[in-house]
Amino acid sequence: MSFVARPFFRSISQPMTRLTAYFCSAVGACTVVSLLWGQIGEFRPRDVIVRAEFLSDSKTSDGRHSKKSPVASPSFGNQVSGFEVGPAIHFVALSAGVDKHAPVDPVEANGPIFVDWPKPNVLLVFSGDQDGYLEPCGCAGLQNQKGGLKRRHTLLKELEARGWPIVAMDLGGQVRRFGKQAELKFERTYQSLEEMGYAAVGFGTHDLRMDLLPVAINLDPEKSILVSANVGILDFESGFSRRYKVIEVNAMRIGVTSVLGKTEIAQLQNLEDVVIENPDQAISQVLPDLKGEQCDQMVLLVYADRKEAEDLARRFPAFDWVVAAKGADEPPNAPTPIKNQSGKTITQLVEVGHKGMYVVAVGLYKNATPAFRYQRVPVDHRFKDSPEMEEIFVGYQDELKTLGLAGLGLNAIEHPSGRRFAGSEVCADCHGTASQIHEHTPHAHATKTLVDLDPSRQYDPECLSCHTTGWHPQNYFPFVSGYRSLEKTPQLTSNGCENCHGPAKRHADVEYGNIDVEEKEQEELREELRLQIVDNEGNMEGQVFKPGSVVEMCIECHDLDNSPDFDFQAYWPNVEHRGKD
Amino acid sequence: MRSIIVVIVLSALSGSIIGAALAYVQVGFPREGMAEIGDGPATVATDVVVAGEFPRVQVDQLEYDFGKMQRGTEQSHRFKISNEGNAPLRLETGKPSCKCTVSKLSTNVLKPGESIEMEVTWKAQAEEGPFRQWVPVTTNDPNQSRFELTMKGEITRPTGLVPREFYFSKIRVGDTRATKVFLMSYLQDDVKIEKAEIVSEDAREHFDILIEPVSKKDLPDKNAAAGVLITLTAKPGLPIGRFSQWLDLDTNLPDVRHLEVPVSGHVTGDIGIRGRGWNEEQGVLRFGSVSSGKGKKVTLNIIIRGEHAAGVEVEVDRVQPSELVATLGEPREYKDQLFHVPLTIEIPAGTRPMVHLNPNLHEPASVTLKTSHPQAPELQLDIRFAVER
Lengths: 581, 389
Fold this sequence. Notes:
The complex is a heterodimer. Chain A contains 19 helices and 17 strands. By secondary structure, chain A is α/β, with parallel strands linked by helices. The longest helix of chain A has 29 residues, at 15-43. A six-stranded mixed β-sheet of chain A has the order 7-8-10-11-13-12. In chain A, strands 5-4-3-14-15 form a five-stranded mixed β-sheet, with helices on one face. In chain A, strands 1-2 form a two-stranded antiparallel sheet. In chain B, the strands form six sheets. In chain B, strands 19, 20, 22, 26, 27 and 28 form a six-stranded mixed β-sheet that branches. In chain B, strands 2-9-8-4-6 form a five-stranded mixed β-sheet, with no helix packed on it. Chain B starts with a helix and ends with a strand. In chain B, 37% of the residues are buried. The interface between A and B is large, with 110 and 112 residues.
């Protein structure tokens, strides 16, 4: 530069002209610097930059949009919905007529992630409140669903492959039910978390209802992933869990502890092998030791709602990150700064959502601005299934198969009506048209859908409850005379007539003449099975959950998890049948 | 020398003013997050700004709080989106975080100075508790290529059960244990249970049901208007193993005239076995298929509780087939009346091929232990496995 400029200025003989030239050049240089500064200021908020999710769509100097993809991994979203090349715009009718099996671009649907992130010194990864969803939440076409341990593992592996130092932490809440199937899930989940390299795992309410001690015994004592300040297995000195943990990674020390909140503790009774303390007292006991560890960052995992977590954040400002498990299903796109009375940010509050649909990643940058970056990561199908987790999941399905319903402790319970099931073929003898219509609906091959999956889900009670006839849809157990297996009860495969109309064996027996009853009872039995659809069924205000309505029965299976697009008016024409024929 | 300093100072000053003016014309004042287009959670634009005309999106608020909504009801909110720039603003709604959210736009292009209202509707179909949903919107504003319109609130129901089920956890055989559930109304000052009964007739004799009124201050949810406490007591006599039942309740509450509350628990003996592959209900340990070359080893824990726990001795009595190796570890006392004895069962590498998967078809395989416990002098573990070449 100087070897060009110097001869130029020397060539100007007049001192004033040369001075003017110097002046103009300096003004020009400062203008350029100022312009750059103005643009930098545009991108840099005063506090910290919180980058939630944004498109990496920039304009080139000729005014066209360019797609830049600084992320090497395909999972992280190098696609953007640019205006010139983007998909058709759909502003209306987002809820109706959607083909649940149509391909979905996860990046387009849920946004790109980690765009423009430099390598963090440490990446904190938070998950929690899986609620028993080992697989993506629901079964309405996997591409429409988020979550699952298989995808989560792939995410972690891809981050690791980038060389990002990860500290993964889970708040607990692995299951939401109880019984043998929940215990199998619980055990497999702990096995998975250990294999995924989690550094710390807290306890949720339902976790403590599991047979925790034998599961804890099987965990690797070297890894020691169970961490809680106020929940101990047997006691706090047994060694099955730690009250806090310090993870040293990439020259940073991350201190972490967890607590089960007061409102959650109030829901627990009759626990064996577990001791629980008040969370405030427990943190007060643990904190001096944790502070003494000279951590760069301190994390408090709170299995409680957001308000309780926020209260703890204010009471214990030593924690840089307070993470809440029981917020909304969907975590926010930025952490919430918790401020003290003088308005200074003391802690960042993070929510992780439910059902494992998201994890939250926080990149820490030592001696840099911003000091951290935040990313809500949708665990969608941009992440392929991890073979390691698939193996665990296949093992889980195998175990369900070998145990069978009896081994799972699923004893049949009387249907509230006290009636027995006959099977759809019996119905077809008299109600021919309705049966023909049913035969051509997905209801008719609901069980086959499970059989055809890989691995097959035909032994999974949580699937059978809506894919066979004669089960309680939401509580996953068979009614007396309901479906048992393909071999034992082939007449009850499919989501048959009686799941909506009610068990019909006595009605059929009477109509066949197998049982002789008074005419009055015969008519009552018929009446029991009749359903009446009202005008605008399912759409009238307050009708959605009106007891006794037809739509009420539909949403037992077509719930938000498994049929988020369900709209009675849109779906009914596909199965419509009227009258007794 | 002095003139050079003056020139530098003047140049810097003039340059700064000109630069700042140009920067302001192009991009305005620096923003903090999305403060300029709302006070909700921030997203940050990072696109490179170029000279010329460009659109500029502004939203009246990024987040709207619906407050408390009763489950099954629907609410809407209109977000106002404006174009404060000097070129047409193009808007495109993306896939909402939940399909219950419906967004409608009458046009997708706003001329400079124009604004549009975007209606977002949320039907509270989810379970009670907090909710947060959003609709992503992409724009051609070079400084704000994407933002989210977020709705939040809390879904409530007029009636609540805390906890939601009668869960007994483990009951030692012969013991009595009680568990409690509050039934609360958030709307009604008077809660009555008109009928309460275990669904299964056979199981009714094993349970006592007690219903007591509870003052408002003693209810677990301070927002509840009234409630009752239901205590279910499991009496001695329930068989060993898991049990699941339903408690039927008829109430005076209009929205839940009839309720079925799950009842479950696990009756256990003094001695239990735990570990991967072990099914306690069936007394079976499953190895599955094992490669002869590799063999396989499983470690279980024999858990001994109760007054006899401290003095119990356990030894391996016999194994069948003889290729199986069963080894007991040192007993460990975890607390008073709780001992664990590790038991390792191994199919050693090099075991000849054999099949013991179905006791009806194949020779049974088992490990039998002798104990000094008065209630369980012998423990038999059925083993299912196949050794492949």
